[in-house]
Design goal:
Elements (H helix, E strand, L loop, with lengths): L5 E3 L29 H16 L5 H34 L2 H7 L2 H9 L14 H17 L22 E8 L8 H15 L3 E7 L1 H10 L3 E5 L6 E7 L3 E10 L8 E9 L2 E8 L8 H16 L6 E7 L4 H6 L8 E2 H4 L10 E2 L13 E2 L2 E6 L7 E9 L15 E8 L3
Length: 416
C-alpha cells in the first residue's frame, strides 16, 4: 500500500509549529559553483536500470532477471579468459568445425554465457518454474520458511523481538543504483530485514524494481515513499505495531540531485511519533547545498508537534566539520550516536578500508549515516538503548549488500 502524501516547498505550513522559540535558520544561499553532471549521470543510470530490470510486469520475472544478471556477472569474471579463447576459435571455424576441434570446456562456456540482448531460461526448466523457484528463494530469505506443498510461502509474521516499550529502527542506504550482483545483494537485504523485523525501516537509494520486490515480499509492512521514479527514499512501518497517520514530502528548492525530506506521522502502540528520512546532497563539493538541506531538516524537526517524539535517520553525507560549521546541533536535537557515548564500533557507516564494493583505492572512513532525536516535550520519553552496524558480512558473490553499512538502533520508552 502506498499512501497519499502532502508536498511542501521547503517551509513548514503556518500554524503547525511545535516550538516557536529559537527557530533554526533556514537561509538558502542558492546554488554554488557550476551545475554538476551527477544529476544527469544518476538519472541515466537509474533509467537504464529501470528499463532493463522492470521490463517484466510481474515481480517474479523481475526477481528472475536480477538473479540471471548476477549469474552473468559472476560467469564473466570467472571465465573471461576461456570466453576469449572460445570466441577466437569460433571466428576461425564453422559451427561443425568448432564442435570437432574445441575442447568440451570451451563449448560449455559458449552455451552457458547469457546473451547481452536477453536472458534465456535453462532448457531443462520452464520460465514459470524458474521464476517460482526464484520467488521461493527470496521469500525464504525474508520469512525464514520453506515453501509449502501447494507452492505457497507461509507469510504468517513471526512474533516481534521488541518489547512493548521498545522501538526498533533500521536506517540503510541500500545502493539500489548499483546493479552488480544485485540479486544476491537483494536476497541479503531481505534476509537482514526479515531477521531484525524492525518497527521502522528507513531506506535510501530505492529504485522501482527494488521497491516492487520488497512490496511483494514484505507483506507485514506499510510503505511510505519520497518518490516513485528515479531513486528515492522510503519509510517502512511494521503493521500491528506502527499505525500510519499522514505523510509529507518537503522539497529542497536548490537540490541538483532530486533530494527531499520524507516525513511520516505515526502512532507507535498509541504513542505519537514523527519519523523522518532523507538522502542529503552527495559529494564533498556540494557542502553548501547539503548544509542548506540540513538546516531545513532541523527546522522541521524543531517545529513538529510538542507531544511527538521525532526520529530522523538517513544518509546525510555529512562530515563532522560541516556540523561544527553550523555551530553544532540546535538545542533540543540530539545525535543518537553521541547520546550512546560515541561507540567506536558503530562510528563509520561508509568505510572503504573494509567495504570494496566501489573499488575506491584510498581508505576513507566517514559517518555519513546518522540518527537524530528530538524528545517529546510532554508524555512518555524516549531514550536510545543500543546501536549497531549491520550488513558487515561479505556475500558469497564477493560483494557486500551495499557500500553503506546499515544502522540498527533500539529506543526505550520511559515514564512521562
Amino acid at each position: 500500500m502506498i499512501n497519499q502524501t502532502k508536498v511542501y516547498q521547503g517551509e513548514p505550513p503556518a500554524g503547525t509549529k511545535g516550538n516557536s522559540s529559537s527557530p533554526v535558520d533556514v537561509k538558502v544561499n542558492g546554488k554554488t559553483g557550476k551545475k554538476k553532471k551527477n544529476k544527469h549521470r544518476q538519472r541515466t543510470a537509474c533509467q537504464k536500470i529501470t528499463d532493463s530490470v522492470c521490463s517484466s510486469v510481474t515481480v517474479e520475472d523481475q526477481s528472475s532477471t536480477l538473479q540471471q544478471r548476477s549469474k552473468q556477472t559472476k560467469k564473466r569474471c570467472a571465465r573471461s579468459k576461456q570466453e576469449k579463447s572460445a570466441q577466437q576459435t569460433s571466428d576461425r571455424s564453422t559451427r561443425d568445425q568448432s564442435t570437432q576441434t574445441e575442447s568440451p570446456q570451451s563449448v560449455q562456456t559458449q552455451t552457458e554465457t547469457p546473451s547481452d540482448q536477453g536472458i534465456d531460461s535453462p532448457a531443462t526448466e520452464s520460465k514459470s518454474t524458474q521464476t517460482r523457484q526464484t520467488s521461493f528463494t527470496l521469500h525464504q530469505a525474508y520469512w525464514g520458511k520453506s515453501p509449502t506443498d501447494d507452492g505457497a510461502v507461509d507469510e504468517q509474521a513471526p512474533q516481534s523481538n521488541s518489547t512493548s516499550n521498545q522501538l526498533t529502527v533500521i536506517s540503510w542506504n541500500i545502493d539500489g543504483l548499483d546493479l552488480e550482483n544485485v540479486y544476491s545483494r537483494s536476497k541479503g537485504l531481505l534476509s537482514h530485514l526479515g531477521k531484525y523485523r524492525a518497527d521502522v525501516v528507513l531506506l535510501q537509494e530505492l529504485i522501482p524494481p527494488y521497491l516492487n520486490l520488497l512490496q511483494s515480499i514484505m507483506k507485514d509492512y506499510e510503505f511510505v515513499l519520497g518518490n516513485q521514479e528515479g531513486y528515492f527514499t522510503g519509510i517502512l512501518l511494521r503493521k500491528g505495531r506502527v499505525q500510519f497517520l499522514e505523510s509529507n514530502i518537503v522539497k529542497y528548492p536548490t537540490t541538483e540531485m532530486d533530494r527531499n525530506l520524507l516525513i511520516a506521522n505515526v502512532s507507535f502502540l498509541g504513542r505519537p511519533l514523527c519519523i523522518m528520512t532523507s538522502h542529503l546532497e552527495s559529494c564533498k563539493a556540494n557542502s553548501q547545498e547539503r548544509l542548506n538541506q540540513l538546516r531545513r531538516v532541523w527546522k522541521w524537526t524543531k517545529e513538529a508537534p510538542l507531544d511527538h517524539t521525532v526520529i530522523f535517520g538517513g544518509d546525510t553525507n555529512l562530515r563532522d566539520w560541516e556540523v561544527k560549521k553550523l555551530g553544532g546541533l540546535p538545542n533540543g536535537i540530539f545525535d543518537v550516536w553521541e547520546m550512546l557515548g560515541e561507540p567506536e564500533e558503530s562510528r563509520y557507516t561508509w568505510d572503504t578500508s573494509i567495504n570494496d564494493n566501489k573499488e575506491i583505492p584510498n581508505s576513507i572512513r566517514l559517518r555519513f549515516d546518522r540518527l537524530f532525536l528530538r524528545p517529546a516535550a510532554e508524555g512518555a520519553q524516549v531514550q536510545p538503548e543500543t546501536m549497531a552496524l549491520i550488513g558487515l558480512e561479505k556475500l558469497k558473490c564477493d560483494y557486500f549488500i551495499s557500500d553503506h553499512w546499515g544502522i540498527l538502533c533500539t529506543f526505550l520508552y520511559g515514564s512521562a
